[in-house]
UniProtKB/TrEMBL annotation:
A Pfam family: SIS_2
Protein name from the UniProt record: SIS domain-containing protein
InterPro entries listed in its UniProt record: GmhA/DiaA, SIS_dom, SIS_dom_sf, SIS_GmhA/DiaA_subfam
SIS domain: residues covered: 35-200
Domain of life: Bacteria
PANTHER family assigned to the protein according to its UniProt record, in alphabetical order: DNAA INITIATOR-ASSOCIATING PROTEIN DIAA, SEDOHEPTULOSE 7-PHOSPHATE ISOMERASE / DNAA INITIATOR-ASSOCIATING FACTOR FOR REPLICATION INITIATION
Organism: Acidovorax bellezanensis
Amino acid sequence: MLEQRIQQHFIDSADLKYQAAQALSLPIASAVQAMLACVTSGGKVLACGSGPSVTDAQMFASLCVTGFERDRPELAALALSPQGGLLGSLPASGGGGNAVHYLARQVRALGQAGDLLLVLSVTGNDPCALEAVEAAHERDMMVVVLSGRTGGTLAARMRETDVLVCVPHERAARVREVHALVLHCLCDGVDAQLLGEQEMPL
């Protein structure tokens, strides 16, 4: 029984990836072009997520700096600090809404026009992610959102120049699995544009 349950996870994940490949390839390609324009013009990528997606944002920024599957110059990318360590230093005045603003504050402190904000949010309704997108728009930054389901409130906050990559599934685990693949596609796509096409490594 347990083995069948495990096998079903693999089947469901593979089915979703197969179904999403065609629908997501265009927005992912648009996100690659946005990233490429950002880093080749001297900008940087700020990556952030909420909940389990925090580690995905950190992994993505690390791959930008250290390289994906090929040796190349470092790309300017930074994962914004997760909530924990930052909140202790925030002033308590002003109504106590600081827990929502921890990402937006970092975007305002570090972001500038020409930079790109990459946001990972399974539901698209995380208040901290919404605040971060608003802060990025204030800084004239482009935004790429990786979400799931319908894209939530974030989808409605996107500008025409932003990119929404929305995984068509309700289950958070399946959405995060596709997000991991999308991040790999972004890294590989930028490398292919910078270094030229090559066969997929074994």
